[in-house]
Hints:
This protein is α/β, with parallel strands linked by helices. It is built from 15 helices and 14 strands. Pyridoxal-5'-phosphate binds near residues 186, 187, 250, 313 and 325.
Amino acid sequence: MEVAVRLDPAGSLAEQIYRQLRDAVLDGRLRREEALPSSRDLAGQLKVSRNTVTAAYERLIAEGYLVGRGGAGTFVNAMPVALPDAPQLPSGSLVPRAVWPRMPIPPDYSETPEFDFRVGAPDTRLFPYTAWRRLLTSQFRQSAVGTGMPVEPAGHLGLRTLLAGHLRTARTIETHPRDVLITSGAQQALDLIGRVLLEPGATAVVEEPGYAPPKLVWEAQGATVIGVPVDEQGLIVEALPPGARVVYVTPSHQYPTGVAMTLRRRVELLAWAQRHDAAIVEDDYDSEFRYTEQQLEPLHSLDRSGRVLYIGSFSKVLLPTLRLGYLIHPTSLRHALHAAKFLADWHTSLPPQAAMADFLAQGLYARHLRRVRRVYRQRHDRITAALAGPLAAHLTVVPSSAGLHLSALPRGAPTDDVLTRARAAGLGLASYPEIAAAAPGQPGIVLGYGMIDAHRITEGLTRLRQCLDAC
Length: 471
Ligand SMILES: Cc1ncc(COP(=O)(O)O)c(C=O)c1O
């Protein structure tokens, strides 16, 4: 990398190089793991002797700011102690559309609680790094990344074909690869659906409590979004407003309660959508993790009138930072969705799509799933056993046999009191309103087990019990 060092011929040159590089590390201009120029290159750039630069580097290495890695070079080794000062630029008087100031930006997730029951992420330690390194490397051979011209907006055809096959066997979903659209996560599928189906002012429905992004995305696009309550059978179909154009649901594992929508409700919802000429968005975000033989058919498989849009994501099975998801859509929407995808970002980054196709084709996805399912099942069973045993006097569990989280309702104490004590005891738990669109104060705590080891679960839940005893 280029390092801006200015030298005053009057002072010690090695000292000045040392100080300026040290300050750059401390204020974050040079970031951890960044490579420095070789001493020869920096000496040439600054027109000083190589010994001068070597002396500065040696001191920075001795003090821990840099690290030398044999033939690989010299790298930044320390974290900044402060953010770099903001440059003095005018802040401007431009104003965004009225909707944007109330749209949230995700919080900083960098602080890990002692007992990490946070919801939303899988265990990154389980990601198959070696296989993905190999697959991505092979995609970055010139022949594999295409002609340099953009590819179809719907994405890598091999991946779409393999996904159609996978969904047929794993989820009884019948689709054609032409109706599989690869997206940058489930998030982009929601965005495209809103663009294609919701006129400004149109009504859309989300679950309440429910996953916040569909509400936010569609409101930002100008729709009116209404929350419809969920009970122990899933979305209450009777409560749907008649004019809704789009209804968003998470039937396999309702977010955040964990309830599975009953077959009866599924059939009622499809019948309702047909009567009202509405679309259903089925978000099947974590259904690859099921801990029971009993499987309810997705709405997409039950649909006889082509009104279900089925969203899947690799965020839970692999990594959320891959930003890979997909949308199975009715053929009638193909042109509009491809055009919307093209306008949004032309197509999702090709090399990860192609690597994902190889991952599926070589049987590595199935193997990975078997492995991670075993791990998460153990965690799920451990939490369920504790909730049915030592914690049963304090918490009513919402039955759930899928996904990476489950929820429970505190019996005696208010949810907020439980959470305050639990957090003070090092537990990373959340209430419904904190992680979902929900009425303020709605009772219910959510326990995620994507990130916590099974052996930590037992200790964490013992602490939770102590907190509940004290409430
Ligand atoms: C309900 C729900 N849908 C979808 C996703 C995945 O979203 P994405 O694929 O955009 O990462 C999540 C992730 O937490 C989720 O909770």
